[in-house]
Amino acid sequence: MNNRTDESRDPARGAGAGIAFVSAGVTAWQLALMQWLGWVQWYHFAYLVIALALLGFGAAGTVLTLARARWLARWPRIAAIAAALAAATMALALRAAGAGGLAPDLYLLFADPWQIARLAAASLALACPFFFSGLAIGLVLTAGAARAGRLYAWNLAGSGAGGVAGWMLLGAFAPTQIPALVSMLPLAGAVLLLRCDALRGGARAAPVAGAAVLIAIATLLPGGPRPSQFKDISRLLDLPGARITADIPDPRGRLQIIDTPVFRPAPPGSLRFAAEYPVQRAVLLDGNLRGSLVDARGPAADDSRAVFDHALETVAWALGPRENVLFLESGGDGFAAWAAERGANRLVCVESHPGIAKELARVLPVGAIVENAEPRDVLARDGVAFDFIRFPMAGAFGGTVGMQAVGEQFLFTAEAFAAALDRLAADGVIAVSAWTEQAEKNAPRLLATVMEGLRRAGAGDPRAHIAMIRSWNATTLVVKRAPLTETDSAAIRGFCLRLEFDPLVLGGEVAEGAERFHEVPGSALTEQVRAVLDGDIAAAEAAAGGAFRLGPATDDRPYFSQFLKIGHLSRIAREGGWRSAPFVEMGYLVVALSAPVLLIAALALVVAPLSRVGWAGGSRWATAMFATGLGLGFMFLEIGLIARLTLLLGGALTSAATVLTTLLVAAGAGSALSQRFPATPRTLARITLGVAAVCVALGVATAHAPEGWSAPVAARMLVAGLAIAPAAFVMGMAFPTLLRLLEATEPSHVPWAWAVNGCASVVAPSLAILIAVNAGHSAVFAAAAAAYAIAAVATVALRPR
Amino acid sequence: MAVAFALLAAMSPLLLAAPRDEARIRDAMVRDTIERRGVRDPAVLKAMRTVPRHMLVPERHRRDAYDDSPLPIGHGQTISQPYIVALMSEIVGVAPGDKVLEIGTGSGYQAAVLAEMGAKVFTIEIVPELARRAAADLREIGYADIATREGDGYFGWPEEAPFDAIVVTAAADRIPPPLIEQLADGGRMIIPVGPPMGDQFLVLVTKKDGKVRTKTVLPVRFVPLTRG
Lengths: 801, 228
Description:
The complex is a heterodimer of chains A (801) and B (228).
Chain A: E1 2-3, H1 15-40, H2 45-71, H3 75-97, H4 113-143, H5 148-172, H6 178-182, H7 184-194, E2 199-200, H8 202-220, H9 232-237, E3 243-248, E4 255-259, E5 281-285, E6 288-293, H10 301-308, E7 324-328, H11 335-341, E8 346-351, H12 354-363, E9 369-372, H13 375-380, E10 386-390, H14 414-422, E11 424-435, H15 442-456, E12 466-470, E13 474-480, H16 486-499, E14 502-506, E15 509-510, E16 518-519, H17 525-533, H18 537-543, H19 569-576, H20 586-607, H21 620-649, H22 652-673, H23 681-703, H24 713-745, H25 749-775, H26 777-794
Parallel strand pairs in A: 7-8, 7-10, 8-9, 10-11
Antiparallel strand pairs in A: 1-2, 3-4, 4-5, 5-6, 11-13, 12-13, 12-14, 14-15
Helix pairs in contact in A: 1-2, 1-3, 1-4, 1-5, 1-7, 2-4, 2-20, 2-25, 3-4, 3-7, 3-8, 4-5, 5-22, 7-8, 10-11, 14-15, 15-17, 17-18, 20-25, 21-22, 21-23, 21-24, 21-25, 21-26, 22-24, 23-24, 23-26, 25-26
Chain B: H1 2-16, H2 22-35, H3 42-50, E1 71-74, E2 77-79, H4 82-92, E3 99-103, H5 109-116, E4 120-125, H6 128-140, E5 147-150, E6 163-168, H7 177-182, E7 183-193, E8 199-208, E9 211-221
């Protein structure tokens, strides 16, 4: 073994590039993890991944605090070993999390206590790469404090590059292949960090070689978490002859198409249909059924068109011919072809996913226009007036037990319907449907949302524009730009009689004979609809027992599928048993439960170990309050901005990429430049009060962001980034300034400030979602402002220099 | 020695356990969960007391066979909870000698209950492995007269139509026209609607003088799985 110290070299040279690679790996790994877990489970893991990342980094900070004195002398080697372990665990963690059938299943979380242990074990496994990466980066930043500015720059550049690399990998490889590829980044970081080490020879290469072996083993191991048995993909693949005929990776969702000779979906329709439902291709995004495709030019075309002769939504044609028709994220099921046969000479299908858009172009009738764009973007543009606009179904067939409750749905808001009304011709009609439920929620909320949309579009009496009709398992809402006439009502009545549907609302009121063909004894739907038509949402909610919100969804609170009022959960549980209560609205409760669980994990892993070093000093509560305010405020603003800018930027992922990159770069620059300002309580008060004001300003400004802006997406991203950057710059100054102040006045508080800030950051994403769901995005911005204001108040009690 | 003693002590429940009295447990299940929740048809209750559900579930779940909960039978499918089976059997109103078509054999439990009520049962399962296993299990426990078929239930069983009753055991977004066609005049079809794990409701489809009507019968709260 050859041990020698090279005095001539700057020991930190190469370390910057090393942590850049590790940082790149962290960002890319986060993206890969989000997509893989979104595929095997549900998108709820996206925020859980953010929380796990923060938890891993927080725990690493605590370990560094405790071991700093011992590790600093050998920092390059220890940082390299940590980077190598980060690489190995990136490749191994997902396989470990799903090993031996131990992967947790959210569906079973409330039914099987072991699932909680599985989830905890899986979370710990998935947090390992973040922990080791945090150790490597933190140790380099600690050792190279004198060149902190430059090292920060490497760190930020690496994070940004990792985002780009991750995005590209998601578009080129299957989720199962990406972890091993991503692990090459921290492995390269480990190699670069080892170059800073005095140790020479084979011993120096040992960590990298060991990690490489582990990565190789990980690529050879079978499995990893599989899609939940309850996901659509699992159920479809159980059908005879089922095979995946297309599997296209994409950052916007993994597209898979399954062919099976027995998949025969159908739109809500009449029981008088006596022909054969055609076999269709199942289209899945991240393992969830998104729709179906039938080739309008193939042998099944005639059968497919016959189905729509009996479909609820074709009621629009009873009111007159439709020449210009628009399908929003739908149409491949044969409806577009039916419309073409019925005289539509301009068919436009808008599809936000590029892969599905390509498939649509293959199956739609010749001449149909497929536009790969966000539906809200298209609705907001000026252009040809449409005679008919079809929305996708509200809710999924059979429901999703509220799995989508906390997902933003900007296509089902009052603003979206108002925009669609603006795109209609004078006699134009919108059709939108909801599956029937045991406790009706989707249909009354759809009505409430459409009525609010009509009000916003300037309709004098919204009721005059609406008709509702029912089949045995669905309700369709027909909205006409002009008020429906007596002739229209008669035509709808005739359509219902012919196909044995029940009219529910005609002429602005509940129709007579609403249960002629389909009896629903005990259903509150009629009463709910009557109350919504009267504008009395409270009465509509009371008619169904009061446990569900039925008010209109708006862009500020775009959670169409979130109904449960949390205060009523105990009553629901008493009636049906606690084990079944979560299935009323699983998605919301998963988030609500995760907040305390994450807090406990953060306290146990980040704060508790610090008790060994003790925490004394007069201003510790002020320090804790300040650090908490910063942790919460930063994350609240980040999540509020991502949600708000989705419409401006034409998609959630574009918004997330813009906001995260801007915050990362600008806040990092603010951190680096904060050293030029005096570290005093007054400086901190000014910074935090300034950020609080900016939070309010951004909340107001983004609420009025121009939707459907025709500028290229890149230009929009640039403008949004420039608007956020100044605020992010100032936000980034707060924490380093606090640390400098504490270093000078009460050094023992420094690790505690890190730990408390880390804990608050871990819990903040869940809290932000809960605030948004219950009070809207404006409230999230207000909460961010309040958190910074609390931090400002805390500065009064901080010890001055 | 201490280790051996500890092991023996830990295993003693297994070594000393008496064979379970399945009939008594089944009887208690019918009394406590099915009758108490309102199922009254004597033929249904008798059938539920007779069919050995534990013989139709995977061996590792036999101890739970008489809990009022569904159990996994593989391929993402479940054997329905006993209450739902009893309720559907009562609603569809099977009389001795009726011809009944079941879509979705699964474990074969629903078919066995209908057969026990005196119906001539025809059952179709789309997942080949489940179809073969159910056919074998039904023969083994004495229901060899149940006609089983492996295939797509969409097309029904035209050779044996018309049927006095049709029981569909999996929620569907449409009722296949062949099933309506194969339903006898005056016949009844029961079909569940709703998520596999959540609130469901049963829809009763009737056919009279060629006219088809539906009626939402009853909300059903599903009790989720206890094991994956």
